[in-house]
Structures are given as C-alpha cells and as structure tokens.
C-alpha cells in the first residue's frame, strides 16, 4: 500500500517520529494479510503463538520501513508527499533510522523462529532483505519495473503467516501472494498518475516518468485483467467458498471497469478535473485488497 501520510514540520524528535519510521499505514496491511494467511491455514496454532507470530511479522515489516526511509532520505526530501518525514525534516538522523531498522530486523527474525518455526523466520528475513536491498537500493532507482518486481516484498506476508502455521508453502499461499503481487502495480501507478512530478523531480524511473501517462493507463488496465483470474482462482481452493467467490467476482468486475475508465482518459481530461478518475481508482484499490482478505477471513469463520 502506498504511504500517503503527511507529517508535522521540523522540530524535536518525538516518539511518534520513530513510529513513523516504521510506516504504520503500510504495516497495517502487512499485519492484516499475514494474520489472514495464518488464520485460514489448515493447521491451527495456539492463540499465544499466533499472536506472537503476527507481532513479529509486524515488527519485521516496520524494520523494512525504517531501512527504506534511511536509504531513501534523499528522494524523500525532494518529493512533496514525503519531505515531511522524520529524516528529511531533520527530526531523526539517518543513523538512528538505520540502527532501529537493523535492530528490529534481527529481533523480529529471531523471535519468529523461536515462537513459530525457522522456515517462517527465514522467509521473513528474506522479505526484509528483498524490500530493503533488492527493491529500495536497486530496483526503485534503476528500472520502471521497480514496482512490478519490488511488489513481491509486499506480497510475501500472507505466505509468511501461512508458513508460521504449516511450516511450508502451498497453492493457497501462492495465490494469496499473486493477489497482492498483481494488485501492486496498478495501485502504485494510479498514484503516480497524479504524483508524476514528484517522481520526476526525485529521479525515480516510475513508468509515468519513463513512458508517459498514456502508457501507464494501458498498463493499469492490463494488470486488472491479469489480476482477476488469480483472485477468483483463490476462491476455488480449500480457503475459498461462496462468500469469497461472490466478493471476488464483484470486486474484480468493478476494478476492471474502473481500470477501463482510467485507460480511456487523456491528459487533458485528467488535468481538467484534477485527476478525478485516477484518484477514484487509487482509493478503490485500497478497498479492493482489504475486501478480498476480509472475505477470506469471513469465509473461514462462517465455514460454508
């Protein structure tokens, strides 16, 4: 999920500034999808073990956010959306963010291994590395496919949750991964359509910068078409059922329709109404993912 949080003006560092380093809005989605992956798994954990597992996955997600903010401080200082973050605003130093990120990474991985299993802990360690190194340090600044490939980092949490319960991987967890993985590009590209100047000024090769808005609109629509079969396929596995399938069909029909509307837009139309359709699609994308995982949870609890 894109972090669109705004922050206070520069001043003395407060506890909230260190919390902001962990990207709590993004972490909330990590926690929720990991929780769903753990709950719908066929192996039921003791409630205390389940709670600790989700807690340490959340801490690992926060660690990734802190490492991302440490490395991206130069970019954040240029972008209007992020220049008020703790590091570019001067309230927290880069060294503090790096130290916090590394410490939380080690704690989360070790404690997840002790509370759940070491396969899940290794998976969490790989996810932190993928987000902090593969995406943040390499892909983000080098290719317009940054969001496409880097989106895997945000798609791993439900697989980690599933691994906490089962100690492995299955078709169900892979499809939960695919749901987030193919959702991520249209979600971020919709944001980039009305934040293009920020990415351009920061030198980030987002698709809108390298190929233009019209190409980006076509890519958004294409990904809504690719995404739908995976979302519906998940409903045909052991974790699916009529409740989830109904939600998936409705949500994906709406997502494709809104993607089609965005694709048909011109730059003149977008500028004329303040990117109304693009912002509407972006907001829908937030509800889209949450609703799918909520439907999985309801389907599991209802058991029909």
TrEMBL record:
CDD domains: PT_UbiA_Cox10 (cd13957)
Keyword Transferase appears in the UniProt entry: yes
Subunit annotation: Interacts with CtaA.
Enzyme Commission code: 2.5.1.141
GO biological process: heme O biosynthetic process
Organism from which the protein derives: Paracoccus aurantiacus
One term under GO cellular component: plasma membrane
MF-aspect GO terms: protoheme IX farnesyltransferase activity
Catalytic activity: heme b + (2E,6E)-farnesyl diphosphate + H2O = Fe(II)-heme o + diphosphate
One Pfam match: UbiA
Membrane topology note: Multi-pass membrane protein
Note: Carbon 2 of the heme B porphyrin ring is defined according to the Fischer nomenclature.
Subcellular localization: Cell membrane
Protein name: Protoheme IX farnesyltransferase
Keywords: Cell membrane, Heme biosynthesis, Membrane, Transferase, Transmembrane, Transmembrane helix
Pathway this chain belongs to: Porphyrin-containing compound metabolism; heme O biosynthesis; heme O from protoheme: step 1/1
Function: Converts heme B (protoheme IX) to heme O by substitution of the vinyl group on carbon 2 of heme B porphyrin ring with a hydroxyethyl farnesyl side group.
Transmembrane segments: 26-42, 48-71, 92-112, 118-139, 146-169, 175-194, 220-236, 242-260, 281-302
HAMAP family cross-referenced by the UniProt entry: CyoE_CtaB (MF_00154)
Tree of life domain: Bacteria
Enzyme class: transferase
UniProt-listed NCBIfam families: cyoE_ctaB, PRK04375.1-2
């Amino acid at each position: 999920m894109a972090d669109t949080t705004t922050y206070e003006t520069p001043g003395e560092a407060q506890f909230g500034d260190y919390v902001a380093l962990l990207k709590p809005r993004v972490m909330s989605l990590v926690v929720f999808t990991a929780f769903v992956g753990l709950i719908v798994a066929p192996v039921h954990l003791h409630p205390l073990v389940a709670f600790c597992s989700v807690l340490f996955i959340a801490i690992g997600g926060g660690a990734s956010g802190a490492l991302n903010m440490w490395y991206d401080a130069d970019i954040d200082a240029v972008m209007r959306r992020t220049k008020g973050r703790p590091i570019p605003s001067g309230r927290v130093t880069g060294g503090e963010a790096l130290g916090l990120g590394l410490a939380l990474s080690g704690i989360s991985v070790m404690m997840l291994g002790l509370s759940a299993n070491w396969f899940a802990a290794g998976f969490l360690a790989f996810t932190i590395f993928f987000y902090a190194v593969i995406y943040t340090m390499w892909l983000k600044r080098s290719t317009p496919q940054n969001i496409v490939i880097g989106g895997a980092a945000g798609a791993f949490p439900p697989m980690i949750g599933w691994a906490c319960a089962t100690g492995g991987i299955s078709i169900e967890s892979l499809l939960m991964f695919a749901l987030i993985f193919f959702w991520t590009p249209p979600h971020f590209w919709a944001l980039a359509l009305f934040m293009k100047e920020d990415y351009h000024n920061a030198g980030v090769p987002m698709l809108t910068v390298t190929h233009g808005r019209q190409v980006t609109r076509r890519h958004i629509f294409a990904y809504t078409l690719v995404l739908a079969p995976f979302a519906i396929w998940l409903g045909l596995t052991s974790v699916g059922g009529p409740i989830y399938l109904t939600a998936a069909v409705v949500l994906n029909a709406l997502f494709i329709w809104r993607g089609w509307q965005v694709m048909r837009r011109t730059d003149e139309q977008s500028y004329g109404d303040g990117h109304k359709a693009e912002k509407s699609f972006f907001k829908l994308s937030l509800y889209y993912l949450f609703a799918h995982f909520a439907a999985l949870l309801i389907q599991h609890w209802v058991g029909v």
